[in-house]
Design goal:
Elements (H helix, E strand, L loop, with lengths): L1 E5 L3 E6 L4 H14 L4 E3 L5 H12 L3 E5 L2 E6 L9 E3 L4 H11 L6 E4 L10 H9 L3 E5 L2 E7 L5 E7 L4 H9 L7 E9 L2 H13 L5 E4 L3 E4 L8 E3 L4 H14 E7 L12 H7 L3 E5 L2 E5 L7 E4 L7 H6 L8 E4 L11 H10 L4 E5 L2 E5 L8 E2 L5 H14 L2 E4 L11 H7 L3 E5 L1
Parallel strand pairs: 2-15, 3-14, 6-7, 10-11, 18-19, 22-23
Antiparallel strand pairs: 1-23, 1-24, 3-5, 4-5, 7-9, 8-9, 11-13, 12-13, 15-17, 16-17, 19-21, 20-21
Helix pairs in contact: 1-2, 1-6, 2-3, 3-5, 4-5, 5-6, 7-11
């Protein structure tokens, strides 16, 4: 299945979807707390539904009412669990693997073909060092985890994914000894770690920072029931903003930004550097875009999900865009560096692919093309937005948007986009 995308101008008002990362974390923590904990403004997507299903498998009783879920019964480590299918969700399998180590029975965690290519070994090694028995297929899913862990000193590399560290932080309060955590080899995607700690704090658990992004201490505690409201998703907002910058005519984006940390908020600064004026007032975002954007060098080490929306802005720049320090984007749903470099070049942009990023040179000769998204939700959305600017494009795998933004095509078309699904 694919989409045919015609040259488009969009206008009107759109509401940004809720944050996927906070939805994952809040559902897991609410399920650990129980006692009527609520998560409001939930993003319901394939990824977050995988987290709801995982928590249900762990024994939580979850009630859904429109955009709110209520945890009527908490995760129960005496529940008999044999296998958990986390579909395409890396966040789900990594946090669920940590929770599985609190159970005494062996639990198998798996996912779809894409997820089975994503690394798990650093987390499995860390869990093994504090008492779990773990097995895997070459360090990748499907994996087997059997506890019960006791806690203690644990070391883990931070250069592949911050999700490993988030998993350890979340289970730390529920271990007998607590966890003394040391992050080695540097940490990528640091703001996601901040997001985990902020969410834990909302549920009554404290994390002592000994050395930021390096050493943490988590003492034995319990999670308290609370109500947690999910803010907008700056990863999705970045895509919407890129659509407005390339194709917009008086488009306003609505949504509660909130005060919780989000690394992808830096996209607003990136747009300013590119020459876009960003105005935020009363939870409404508007931009004023010049005829041509500036270029620049951008370090995305802490915000790898900004790679797709930033790369397509090269279609409208007067100077090259250089993206660096985002090697870990190769370990997402796809090798995003490789696919973006390959597919964007089809549109007429000269792309130099580097190990940790790319350089995209501006061009006056752009043309439509068939763009293969690799069944990656963020690449599909980015390529559709690029197609709206270029015209006469075909983009593969529209179903992938179910992972993070199920209404993307409908929302774009409502604003005036020309995106047609074809079999």
């Amino acid at each position: 299945m694919s989409c045919r995308v015609g040259k488009s101008k969009i206008s009107g008002q759109i509401t940004c979807p809720p944050n996927k990362s906070y939805t994952h974390r809040a559902i897991f923590l609410a399920s650990l707390a129980g006692n009527g904990s609520k998560v409001e403004n939930v993003l319901f997507s394939e990824d977050t539904n995988a987290t709801i299903d995982a928590c249900t498998s762990f024994g939580a009783k979850i009630k859904t009412d429109k955009s709110t879920i209520t945890i009527e019964d908490a995760i129960n480590t005496s529940t008999k669990v044999s296998i958990i299918d986390t579909k395409n969700s890396g966040t789900t399998i990594r946090i669920a693997a940590g929770i599985a180590s609190l159970f005494t029975d062996k639990i198998t965690l798996t996912g779809d073909e894409s997820l089975q290519k994503r690394p798990m070994q650093p987390l499995l090694d860390a869990l093994s060092s504090i008492g779990a028995k773990c097995n895997s297929t070459n360090g990748k899913p499907p994996i087997e985890v059997q506890g019960k862990i006791s806690g203690g000193d644990v070391k883990i590399p931070g250069n592949l994914s911050s999700q490993f560290i988030s998993s350890l932080l979340i289970i730390g309060p529920l271990t007998e000894k607590g966890i003394n955590l040391t992050i080695e080899e540097g940490l990528v995607s640091k703001p996601y770690l901040d997001a985990t700690i902020a969410t834990m704090r909302k549920f009554g658990a404290s994390v002592q920072t000994l050395i930021p992004y390096k050493k943490y201490n988590i003492t034995p505690q319990v999670y308290n029931n609370t109500t947690f409201a999910i803010p907008i998703d700056f990863s999705s907002l970045a895509l919407l903003l890129s659509a407005v910058v390339l194709n917009g005519d008086k488009v306003s984006i609505k949504g509660d930004i909130g005060t919780l940390p989000q690394g992808d908020e830096v996209f607003l600064d990136i747009l300013e550097q590119l020459g876009v004026t960003v105005n935020i007032e009363d939870n409404e975002i508007n931009v004023d875009t010049p005829e041509k954007l500036n270029g620049g060098k951008f370090d995305l080490s802490n915000s790898p999900d900004l790679l797709p929306p930033l790369s397509i802005l090269s279609l409208k720049t007067s100077k090259p865009i250089e993206i660096v320090n985002v090697k870990h984007a190769r370990l997402k749903e796809t090798d995003r560096i490789s696919i973006i470099a390959q597919e964007i070049s089809k549109l007429g942009i000269k792309v130099q692919e580097n190990e940790d990023g790319m350089i995209l040179e501006s061009s006056t000769k752009i043309t439509g093309a068939k763009l293969n998204s690799g069944n990656d939700h963020r690449l599909f959305m980015a390529f559709c937005i690029a197609g709206m600017y270029v015209g006469d494009c075909v983009v593969t795998h529209p179903d992938s948007v179910k992972v993070s933004y199920p209404n993307f095509i409908e929302d774009m078309n409502r604003l005036g986009a020309d995106i047609k699904i074809e079999q």
